[in-house]
Design a protein that fits this description.
By secondary structure, the protein is mainly alpha-helical. The protein is built from 21 helices and 5 strands. Helix 1 runs antiparallel to helix 4 and helix 1 (7-22) runs parallel beside helix 5 (128-140).
Length: 483
């Protein structure tokens, strides 16, 4: 019976429940929400299997120009984050075969680790009840569940960032060389995955201030720690600069459409993301109560400020891509748990507990229900035809085929063909043949361009859903001027 009184028992139940829910549609085709970004990530791991594991030259399937400058990318380099997430998935692909479910499983396992870190961090700065509730909310929020099983580097990044936050904070307050070493590993890996791990450092600076009662001067051990932890990231950035054609354009993430601080920005972030997808209207109320209640210390508030700074600085990226808010979910879960706790505990500043307790329970329950209504559509396969056409192309095309799979620049369709090529038609088809050696054309739309290709080249497969054309065999002569 003593087991049922121990927090670890309930934490394990939360982790187990989170694992089970994250298995929902884990074997679904890679054509759901944000499939383009997932396809790019999955392609890197698949190409490690097909072409050999070389993390210093990650490759995906797209050979079109992806960089700031209009440079073609014939080697298909994919220089974004260091492919740590792909490296963790590689053994599963190697021993059990290429299957996107294994990629999702790795994301799931990292997200379970994030649940544990949320519990440990919250327990230190709040109490056990709030820590368990924070872990529970993060584990079962529909937004968190969906993105915790996507083929994105974010779940891995979040795990190492939370580990960085926990161990660096622990090192500052408790010292210890072993803790410092673990903190270094988590910090170095977090920055290697994504440089905006820097937005998790403000709470650590707050911890340093609390411990030493000053900001400056900084002891040399912390200076050396920062230099050593950032060294792998800096070396990686210097390395990838040697191949600029493999670095995707990223400056647009800041404020390319000038949306920052405009009404539309607040509507997207506050209303759509926080108020609907992540927390819902009722969860947002608990979240704001948690923020407004005066704390014993401001560790969580500095963490929240860091998260908001990331959203504001990368305004366009956060508005266009809701998966950017994955790093916001942990602190959102903590403040929602704090809001719930303050209502249940009761306070002279609020209504009597006779009302606050049922309101807190109702609001928390509705949080999961309302957000599920928004998130369930993310699991939908938006265009099943690209999966069907891609499978057929994979069956009948040569392994070395170079494919044009036009899908408005979305690489999800190209990924389904299991071939390298173009996700759109950047040049007239004859030019793609002569300049790049493109061999096949796969399309799910019988537009003018596709009809022209079908008229002049050999059709390998055609039905009312898609067409596959062999560009190596001309059936009807054509004048390039008429293209």
């Amino acid at each position: 019976m003593k087991l049922f009184t121990k927090p670890i028992f309930y934490l394990l139940l939360i982790v187990l429940g989170a694992f089970i829910l994250r298995l929902y549609k884990i074997d679904a085709p890679l054509a759901d929400w944000h499939s383009w970004r997932q396809a790019d990530t999955a392609a890197v791991t698949r190409n490690f299997i097909k072409e050999g594991l070389n993390p210093f030259f990650p490759k995906f399937d797209d050979i079109s120009a992806i960089s700031e400058n209009p440079l073609v990318n014939p080697n298909r380099f994919r220089f974004v984050e260091f492919p740590i997430y792909n490296i963790f998935t590689y053994p599963l692909y190697l021993f059990f075969g290429i299957n996107e479910a294994y990629h999702r499983l790795v994301s799931v396992l990292f997200s379970l680790g994030s649940i544990v870190f949320i519990y440990l961090i919250t327990k230190k700065y709040a109490n056990t009840f709030v820590a368990l509730l924070s872990a529970f909310i993060f584990a079962f929020l529909p937004f968190s569940i969906f993105f915790s099983r996507t083929i994105l580097p974010e779940p891995t990044f979040l795990f190492f960032s939370l580990g960085m936050l926990y161990f660096v904070d622990k090192w500052i307050t408790n010292k210890g060389k072993s803790v410092a070493l673990i903190a270094y590993i988590f910090t170095a890996v977090a920055f290697l995955i994504k440089p905006w791990a820097i937005f998790f450092t403000l709470p650590v600076i707050y911890s340093f201030f609390q411990k030493h009662q000053r900001i400056w001067p900084v002891p040399l051990k912390y200076v050396f720690f920062v230099i050593l932890a950032l060294a792998p990231f800096l070396l990686w950035r210097l390395w990838i600069l040697q191949q600029p054609q493999g670095i995707p354009a990223s400056s647009w993430l800041l404020n390319s459409d000038a949306i920052r601080f405009k009404p539309a920005f607040w509507w997207w972030i506050i209303s759509e993301r926080i108020g609907r997808e992540i927390l819902g209207a009722t969860g947002a109320v608990l979240f704001y109560i948690g923020i407004l209640k005066r704390p014993k210390n401001y560790f969580f508030h500095t963490w929240l400020i860091s998260s908001l700074l990331f959203i504001v600085i990368f305004a366009t990226g956060n508005v266009r891509h809701n998966y950017y808010q994955i790093s916001f979910v942990p602190i959102a879960s903590i403040f929602t748990a704090l809001g719930f706790y303050y209502l249940v505990k009761g306070s002279r500043e609020l209504i009597v507990r006779l009302w606050t307790i049922p309101v807190a329970i109702l609001f928390l329950a509705l949080t999961f229900y309302f957000t599920w209504l928004q998130v369930k559509g993310f699991y939908q396969i938006n265009n099943p035809v690209i999966v069907e056409a891609g499978k057929k192309a994979d069956q009948i095309l040569p392994k070395d085929a170079l494919v044009v799979a036009p899908y408005n620049g979305d690489t999800a369709f190209l990924y389904q063909t299991n071939r390298a090529g173009f996700p759109f038609v950047p040049l007239p088809v004859p030019d793609l043949i002569t300049q790049f050696g493109v061999t096949h054309f796969v399309s799910t739309s019988k537009d003018d361009q596709t009809n022209w290709v079908m008229k002049h080249f050999k059709i390998l497969e055609e039905n009312d859903k898609y067409v596959i054309v062999d560009l190596r065999e001309i059936t009807t002569s054509f004048d390039k001027e008429t293209i």
